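Write out this protein's structure.
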Amino acid sequence: MPAHSSLMSTAEPLLARLHRGVSARRACLLALALLGALAIAPAGARADLVAFGSPLAVPATLDTSSNLNYSGTDIPTIIGGRAVVVHVSHDGADTVLWNGQLASGTVAAPADGQISEVRLEGCAQPAADGPPPVVEIHFQDLVPRPDGGAQIRVTSQPFSIPVCGAGGADASTVTAFYPTNLCVAHGDYVGFNDEGGFDSRAYPSGVPYQVMGSVGGSTMYSFVRNNGTNNGSVMRPGDLTNHDGFVANPGEELMMQSVLATGPDATPLCPGGSRGLSAPIIPGRIAAVRTSKRFHLSPAGVLSLPVVCYQHAGCSGQVLVDLPNAKSPRAAKPVAHLASGRFVLKGDHSSRLTLRLGKKLVKRARRRRGLPVRVTVINEVPAGPPAISSIVLSASRRR
């Protein structure tokens, strides 16, 4: 089981209908309507959302149990009083799938940002005479490696894939999922992750997740390993046995499409995201505090600042808050030092820094209907002087 760290508005009603699963004919009609909606969108409409991955052009007729390129194992056993040999394709263990090459479409994220939506075609096949299939799945940010493999950076919250035959779900059903704060970098892949669902009788090679299609010119990669698909796990070509590891599956395509949000459509927890913010208050690509130009203190005078690290290698430093000179707010020498705090962040992560400014400042802010304060971020830069940036904001008491 994985260890977790987490279109334009005119199209949203149509996509909501896709979430429930539709027939191939209805999906086609919806796609035409979607194209029409986008065609009539005003020229000034935002383009901060872009889809990449599979175009979902064929049904998901292939599954993870029978159609991955492992040699498998022949196991002698007794069934119904007869000696038989059962072929087990691979371990029924944790699995990651991702597209390495597409006959049509873009395999990797075209920019830094947030995966706001994942559209997955297909369903989980139940055994004819066995327990219900495990339906829990995840989506993962996969960082490409120079050797052609990938490393798992971040895993989404769990979702449930439809069961084939339940509610009309079939190989053409497209379901939309909405991950929370799933950040990616330019060039990263988005992977499909399942937990295997092994059952010695019903699912010896794991649950057949029918999420792949037969597409000439496409190549899908798979990695199967018990407890081997956690955050930080590395999937290398050549790491292969007859029953698990890394393998290429030519002529197969993961029927999954991702929507990348950037700018005002992406959370500020992801690089370049600014949803809900008027502006980043401290420029630079090391670590920054992000908030609006006016923020509120708690009645106890506590200030909570979101600090975001933009470097893969991590960030560390200090945040200083002081009371600037009223006549010259940007003057170097402050009237009074109010608070300071230290941050140490993992790469591409964020956290909140809590600073106590005091009740006296709250009273002053209330009397003046706002009070200017200066926030300074001091980034510690290896083998060089610290990078310092600051800005003056207006503090007011939260009502």
